[in-house]
Amino acid sequence: MAIQYATDDNFKDFIKEGFVIVDFFSTTCVPCKAFSRILEELDAELPFINIVKVNTTDYPKLGKENHILAVPTIHFYKDGEKKVENVGVMEVDELKAQIGKLMY
Fold first, then answer.
1. Among 17, 35, 66, 90, which is least packed by CB within 10 angstroms?
2. One of 15, 21, 22, 32 is an active-site residue; which one?
3. Are 72 and 86 spatial neighbours (Cβ–Cβ below 8 Å)?
């Protein structure tokens, strides 16, 4: 599945079912750009993982509702419930370890 971009209107639909990684980012954030490449690598390797990106510059309401104080912030959801939050860039191995813990 391709990486999807959330808006105020569809965010809840994206996270309500299954396992979802949400990347809260800003277009002006250099670490966010680096993390984007890591997510693309993860998506290529594990295409069954749902990855959703939220641009907090374009959708500040979503940033506020999800208590995002810094970007990148990564949330891991399972069936609509936030399980883990990580602030800062995560490496592919860290992402995979977290996925393994939460999915299985």
1. 17
2. 32
3. no
